[in-house]
Design a protein that fits this description.
Organism: Cephalotus follicularis
InterPro entries: Topless_fam, WD40/YVTN_repeat-like_dom_sf, WD40_repeat_CS, WD40_rpt
Protein name: WD40 domain-containing protein
Shape: globular
GO biological process, one term: regulation of DNA-templated transcription
Radius of gyration: 18 Å
CATH topology of one domain: Lipocalin
Keywords: Repeat, WD repeat
CATH class of one domain: Mainly Beta
């Protein structure tokens, strides 16, 4: 008989090891996949920082700006004119730790390249969705690294990571899409998505629509994640 892992409250760490003062409200965090003391932080004023948690040193800080306003769509330009406030909705490292992606509360995602000296370089800016970009994830279907985004416009989009070309658009959610969770099982690559009406859908990298349609418990959900070994 297999007994499930039973954890008690005593197993949970209770001591605060480090306190870092970011200076504004933190919206998203992600530790570097290899250098596990390097922390990526995104805030409610649109800036991102890299912290070395061990030494409490801030390695990099990038306040928000649109890199190329001339390339921005009219809806984005209008949104920025009407209200300049912008927040980071999600910031994540790429799987090899050489890139990071930032999804903002208005339209755009920005991709930076990172090198071990701590330097961040502008790589791609994509006017990805109308309204907020609620999540961003890296995936590698067909052995090609790509970016998956979702937004208030009820869409999920897949982008080439080199030049920013759009490869797929997935439509079918009837509410803003809140999170995307790319995964693969036995060489089948797919994306789970959740919307704020509690619908969970799954997509293959084709144009044939969603393959499954679940209701989340309570008809509400925000984020999805896979367990480290990929079974749950």
């Amino acid at each position: 008989m297999h007994t499930p892992n039973v954890y008690s409250q005593d197993d949970l760490p209770k001591t605060v090891v480090r306190t870092l003062n970011q200076g504004s409200n933190v919206m998203s965090l992600d530790f570097h996949p290899q250098h596990q003391t390097i922390l990526l932080v995104g805030t409610n004023v649109g800036d991102i920082s890299l912290w070395e948690v061990g030494s409490r040193e801030r390695l990099a800080h990038k306040p928000f700006k649109v890199w190329d306003i001339s390339a921005a769509s009219m809806p984005l330009q209008t949104a920025l004119l009407n209200d300049a406030a912008i927040s980071v909705n999600r910031c994540v490292w790429g799987p090899d730790g050489l890139m990071l992606g930032v999804a903002f509360s208005k339209h755009i995602v920005q991709i930076y390249t990172y090198n071990p000296t701590g330097e961040l370089r502008q790589h791609l800016e994509i006017d990805a969705h109308v309204g907020g970009v609620n999540d961003i994830a890296f995936a590698h279907p067909n052995k090609q690294l790509c970016i998956v985004t979702c937004g208030d416009d009820k869409m999920i989009k897949v982008w080439d990571v080199v030049a920013g070309w759009k490869q797929y658009t997935f439509e079918g959610h009837e509410a803003p899409v809140y999170s995307v969770c790319p995964h693969y099982k036995e060489n089948i690559q797919f994306i789970f998505s959740t919307a704020i009406d509690g619908k969970i859908k799954a997509w293959l990298y084709d144009c044939l629509g969603s393959r499954v349609d679940y209701d989340a418990p309570g008809h509400w959900c925000t984020m999805m994640a896979y367990s480290a070994e990929g079974t749950r």
